[in-house]
Amino acid sequence: MTNEPLLAFIDEAGDRGYRKKSSEYFAMAAVIFPASMQQKIKDLITMIKSKHDIPLKTPLHWRKHCRLHETRKYISGELAKLEGLSVIYVISDKKTMPEDQEKFYNIVAAYTLERILKYAEDRNKKVSVKYGHVKGFNSQSTLDYFQNKIWRLGNYNYLTEQPKWIGADTNSGIQLADQYAGILWAAMIADKYGNYEPMYLETIKHQIRKSKQGKISGYGIKAISADSNPKSFKWWIKGWN
User: Fold this and answer.
1) How far apart are CA 236 and CA 70, in angstroms?
2) What is the pLDDT of residue 151?
3) Domain extents for the chain?
4) Which of 54, 112, 128, 164 is the most buried (most CB within 10 A)?
5) CA distance linking residue 240 with residue 43, whole number of Å
6) pLDDT at residue 2 tops 70
7) How far apart are CA 191 and CA 74, in angstroms?
8) Residues 61, 82, 189, 239: what is their CA dihedral angle, to the nearest 10 degrees?
9) How far apart are the C-alpha atoms of 115 and 137, rounded to whole Å?
10) Residues 39-77: pLDDT tens digits?
């Protein structure tokens, strides 16, 4: 393996609830980049906060700080300039998922880890994996789930250590993943008029993991749904494969 490890940070979009106002989907966004890019990521998050008068100690959140189109356009444009960074999305249609929230979370987290490990294996690099902390959640149950033989699909030798769960407060990687999760959510969820906003997702398309043939479906965007095909989602962007 080559020496420089990869860093992978993961954040969520949507919720795992089944109440009337709960989201139809639950997704995870993973950003992966070489360890040498860490300072560049920190500097970018700091610049975005400074430009939008967000206190530096306040975590950057898409839903809280990026409500305006001008802000979203600016941030997605800045993120698109990051070279050497890749994005992986795993989206679950909750109609096909168990109502047990712990099991639900574990399934999506496992699919996300599997995709990250395949990415690391393709590049023959080890990877450090960190998920955004979930309040009141037992991460040990997720680690136990990862060890289940059913989920030993990826090569765990590519992990630098066991995956961890960390807060966004002092971690720019999780804050970055939050922005990419927000970009996906803007494309997926219709406004009150039934319109979708794919513009931000199209801006970062070149960063989404693809097959050698340039295919995004099943590679950079994985669906956990009735047919396991993200192209069947009504928000799928026309012309994407």
Assistant:
1) 23
2) 61
3) 6-232
4) 112
5) 32
6) no
7) 20
8) 180
9) 23
10) 999 999 999 999 999 999 999 999 999 989 999 999 999
Q: Which residue has the tokens 């300072």?
A: 39
* CB contact at 8 A, 98 and 104: yes
CATH dotted code for 6-232: 3.30.420.10
Q: Is 109 exposed, middle or buried (0-12, 13-18, 19+ CB in 10 A)?
A: buried
Dump the DSSP string for the chain.
Answer: --SSPEEEEEEEEE-S--STTS-SEEEEEEEEEEGGGHHHHHHHHHHHHHHTT--TTSPP-HHHH--SHHHHHHHHHHHTT-TT-EEEEEEEEGGGS-S-HHHHHHHHHHHHHHHHHHHHHHHT--EEEEEEP-TT--HHHHHHHHHSGGGTTS-GGGBSS--EEE-STT-HHHHHHHHHHHHHHHHHS--TTS----HHHHHTGGGB---TT---BTTTEEEESSSS-GGGSTTPPTT--
- What does the block give as tokens for 209? 């993991």
The total of other beta-carbon atoms located within 10 Å of residue 219's CB is 18
Type of residue at 30: A
- Per-position b or e across 146-166, b if 16+ CB within 10 A of its CB: beeeebeebeeebbeeebebe
